[in-house]
Amino acid sequence: MARSPQTNSKPLLICLMGPTASGKTDLAIELAQERNCELVSVDSALVYRGLDIGSAKPDYPHHLVDIRDPLEAYSAADFAADAHRLAAEISARGRTPLLVGGTMLYFKAFLEGLADMPAADPDIRREIEAEAELHGWPRLHARLAQVDPESAARIHPNHSQRLGRALEVYRASGVTMTRWHSRQGSLPLPVQQFRIIQIAICPGDRAELHRRISLRLTQMMAAGLLDEVRSLYGRGDLHPDLPAMRAVGYRQLWRHLAGECSLQEAIAGAEAATRQLAKRQLTWLRKWPQLSWIVTDEAGNLAARQQSDLGGSGMGEKPIQLALNYIDTAPL
After folding, report:
1. To 10 degrees, the CA torsion angle through 121, 122, 128, 132?
2. Which of 266, 264, 274, 287 is closest to 209 using CA atoms?
3. CA dihedral 120, 123, 129, 135 (to 10 degrees)
4. What are the structural domain ranges in the chain?
5. 204: closest CA among 304, 104, 281?
6. CATH number belonging to domain 12-114+194-329
7. Is-contact 294 319, C-beta < 8 A?
8. CB neighbourhood size of 22 (10 A)
9. Domain 122-182's class?
10. pLDDT tens-place string over residues 84-143
């Protein structure tokens, strides 16, 4: 028999993860309505105002949506601090915090903590970017490898944003990013305050995930994604190296508007980049500890192999049913 999800002395907190286009948002909304949850977005694109169509911004209320202008930065450390505050506030209202999204670094920062690294330094960043323009990012990657080989091994030589940040941290503090990450963060770990249930949802067939990605991009283009990016492009104060403008779909259409590729090439690039994003998300998830999986079929119902988790009740079971089962039967 299912028990109340909040019989433990610690309040419940739910983390719902999954690759892009996996059905996370729909499941989160159902859970919110079933279990008196408030949703907290764990998505690095949804934080930005004006990135609506391409980020699949939901209509249902979520915290941490539309909280930054695209010109502003928003880091994993920012998210961890905001999510800690919101989780406490939601719990104090007698409701359940439900964190939902696919930005895995945000989940990691919230659940495991990040060290208090130096804040961004615009002067140092401009110096690094000037060096990259002169010598190329691979040259700067070689310099990083000399002082922080662990970070260099994790960062691709052409990943300018991450590479620039690693160099900036070292030049600002004299301490490598690897050493910063090894230090204990200042925020308490959520496991000390909450009973945490972690769930991932994904289609069982990779081809089905790719079909959903392609269909969603087609729908976004029909809904006016190009005009949305054109509006951002026309502001004049944004540029393609900003985190907001590097979101999948936006950076490819930005290149088209800049005359660097055709519209067809931009759309194909956006679809390829979204597939690569989903692959990276799944790589994170396969290594994620204490994760309960919900696998779906082409119709969005539970895959046949998961029917037994609900007592073999037959085909057509919905993801919400298994999610509730995971929550109600999790160890106290």
Report:
1. 150
2. 274
3. -130
4. 12-114+194-329, 122-182
5. 304
6. 3.40.50.300
7. yes
8. 28
9. mainly alpha
10. 999 999 999 999 999 999 999 899 989 988 766 777 888 888 889 999 999 999 999 999
